[in-house]
Amino acid sequence: MKTYMIIMMVFCATHIMAQQSLDTIYTNDTKNVALFFPEPIRQGITGSDNFVFTYNREKEQYFGLLQAKPGKESNLLVVNRNGAIFSYIVRYKKQLSKLNYFIPFSNSIGNEKPIVTDSIQVVTSEKNIDNRTYYYQKFCSYLLNRNQRIGRIKKRTQGIGLTVENIVFDKEELYFVVRIENNSTMDYDLNFLNLSIETRQKGKRKSLQSLYQEPIYKQHLPSKIAEGKMVRFVYVMPKFSLSDDRRAILELNEKDGERNIKLNISHRYINNPN
């Protein structure tokens, strides 16, 4: 069975070589030529005995060593752990100008895995994404219909009010139920609403470091809040917790305006959600 597989792989490589022009790698019998691949090597085969390609067969590694004795040119076929196939012409050369080859993934001539398998994986992945999005939609709607509060987390400026009504933990996510009120006499155009984690640096030179948190999902986030109106929406974030020297910052920014709000959220609310 093993001999059959080797014959088939060498045959495939020869067939591919007939179809397209392959890069050439030069080597000799006095130096090791190292080939570094984007994924660990699972199998490597040369088409002639005067070329030897050695790699770790017990523990997969990213590189292999190529040597040769004087003779006719041959080919080298390498299969990575992820199924990517690489094929090269190999030639003996007494004087070498290059001893290391860093092989990019773009040099792969194909993949040994059937296309249908990849298609099934893509369909399954898309189905999982759709199911997760559907769950977020339903749970966010449920939270918006509830009259639940986690505390008094609010701030106002120039007629604009920003409130975190609720923080709920479910499965692997934190759900932030947010309300924006526009009690001013002008519409409010939303530029962005970002959540970040702020860390207080202790010592003589006190400073703040802020790290933006990317939402997984947003429901009913508006682009405009008309004068005299109020909107409620939900941000879904990957779960996280905070030490007592860190806090969450919800930053509301107006497009082409200066009615901006930074709302501090204590670590107590983050670590003890509903």
Word description of this protein:
Strands 1, 3, 6, 7 and 9 form a five-stranded mixed β-sheet that branches. This protein is 20% helix and 43% strand. With 274 residues, the protein is of the alpha+beta class.
The proportion of residues in beta strands is 35-45%
Mean pLDDT across the residues is 85
Number of E-state strands: 19
Biggest β-sheet, characterized?
Answer: 5 strands, mixed
The residue fraction in helices comes out at 10-25%
- Which blocks of ≥5 consecutive residues have pLDDT under 50? 1-20
Helix-strand sequence: HEEEEEEEEEHEEEEEEEEEEH
* Shape, per Cα inertia axes: elongated
> What class would the helix/strand composition place it in?
alpha+beta
Terminal Cα separation, in Å? Answer: 60 Å
Task: Specify the number of helices.
Answer: 3
Radius of gyration: 30 Å
Identify the notable features of this structure and list them briefly.
about 270 residues; alpha+beta; five-stranded mixed beta sheet; five-stranded antiparallel beta sheet; 3 helices; 19 strands; disordered N terminus
